[in-house]
Design goal:
The complex is a heterodimer of chains A (291) and B (64).
Chain A lengths: L1 H7 L3 H15 L5 H22 L5 H14 L1 H8 L11 H11 L7 H13 L17 H10 L12 H7 L3 H54 L19 H4 L6 H6 L8 H14 L8
Chain B lengths: L1 H9 L1 H20 L10 H19 L4
Helix pairs in contact in B: 2-3
Classes of the chains: A mainly alpha (291), B mainly alpha (64).
């Protein structure tokens, strides 16, 4: 009893030191998996075009593979956004940037737009005025899916459409133009395919899989780990959660709190880091009750 | 350049309707053998349906 009280009274400084020590063990490890994943995933999605257009692969199979592939394409870029593959000035920084740019081609939102808005999300998590991802807030899982769709309507001003405001605010208007050009190229390709007699291929290898992927990514990267998104304190604005789809099915986001507290820990090491620091996080008031 | 881009996106719903939806509807009709409704070509029907739906989306600011 007395022992427990002593353990429970560990000072905040001591807890912080222990947490940082654990984090340090996981930072700086080269994420081979993310690098292989980035290039393989892009190659798979690109190969769908000749395979389906030449009738080597049926369109329904192409659609399923494209949906999985586009859903998986954001995460390697996310590692790059946090300079996890290599930091500025390091020998492999070019690889970090290359992966950042290439992996999100199927998503059509340029790396720089994703990076600047994502760093704003980290800086202002759950702040209604400054968090670019705040609009994904919803009271239920179905509400989150609906909100994601609503935010992509032509007249929407939030969600991806609201990224422009965040980019203007951080002084990067040229990235707004870059995003618009990327979208222009994307739609030009879709239209050219459609008017050449390949409308089904355009829709089922890119347009629809992209929309499903954006919904899925927003659900597991924005909504689930921050729900109900009503606190802004560092240890309370993100949580760990138990997903019916498991950690892999939820894009590795069950331990998202570790990512927010220590963004340079590679994705594949966040479960390990979480279980090592879970007790400390709990003592520091973090939302770790589900897992 | 940015003015042109802004202009295109301002009418994005209509551009999308004629760019993708119209040929998609036309090709769907052909794929299901639904041709010659009221003597209209699949291409015309595609443009008509997509144009009306696109106009709705353009005015309302939403497809759904």
């Amino acid at each position: 009893m007395i022992e427990n009280e002593i353990k429970g009274s560990e000072s905040p400084e001591s807890l912080m030191r222990q947490e940082r020590e654990i984090a340090r063990k996981h930072i700086g490890k080269f994420p081979y998996f993310a690098v292989i994943w980035a290039f393989t995933n892009l190659a798979v999605w690109l190969s769908l075009w000749p395979l389906v257009l030449l009738d080597i692969l049926p369109l329904w199979a192409g659609f399923i593979i494209a949906t999985i592939s586009i859903s998986l394409c954001y995460l390697p870029s996310h590692e790059a956004q946090h300079d996890i593959i290599a930091r500025p000035g390091e020998k492999l920084y070019w690889l970090n940037e290359l992966i950042g740019h290439l992996s999100v081609i199927p998503l059509v939102t340029p790396y720089r737009a994703l990076r600047f808005t994502h760093l704003e999300h980290h800086k202002h998590t759950n702040d209604p005025d400054f968090d670019p991802d705040y609009s994904t807030r919803a009271s239920s899982p179905l509400g989150a899916i609906w909100k994601s769709l609503v935010d992509r309507q032509p007249g929407a001003t939030e969600g991806l459409n609201g990224y422009a405001n965040a980019l203007e605010r951080v002084g990067r208007p040229e990235v707004v133009t870059e995003t618009a050009i990327a979208n222009l190229i994307y739609f030009s390709i879709l239209f050219a395919l459609a008017w050449s007699g390949y409308a089904f291929e355009a829709v089922f290898i890119w347009w629809l899989p992209r929309h499903i992927a954006i919904t899925y990514i927003q659900f597991f990267l924005s909504w689930a780990p921050h729900h109900p998104a009503d606190e802004t304190e560092r240890y309370r604005n993100t949580r760990s959660f138990r997903s019916r789809l498991g950690n892999i099915g939820s894009l590795g986001m069950q331990y998202h709190i570790v990512h927010h507290l220590h963004p340079r820990i590679p994705l594949y090491r966040t479960p390990m880091a979480y279980w090592e620091m879970r007790d400390i996080l709990e003592k520091r008031g973090a939302r770790v009750d589900e897992l | 350049m940015s003015t042109i881009i802004k202009y295109i996106f301002e009418y994005g719903a209509l551009v999308f309707a004629f760019g993708l939806m119209a040929p998609l509807i036309a090709q769907t009709l052909v794929a299901f053998g639904i041709i010659g409704i009221f003597g209209l070509s699949p291409f015309f029907i595609g443009c008509l349906i997509a144009g009306l739906y696109g106009l709705f989306a353009q005015v309302k600011g939403r497809w759904i």
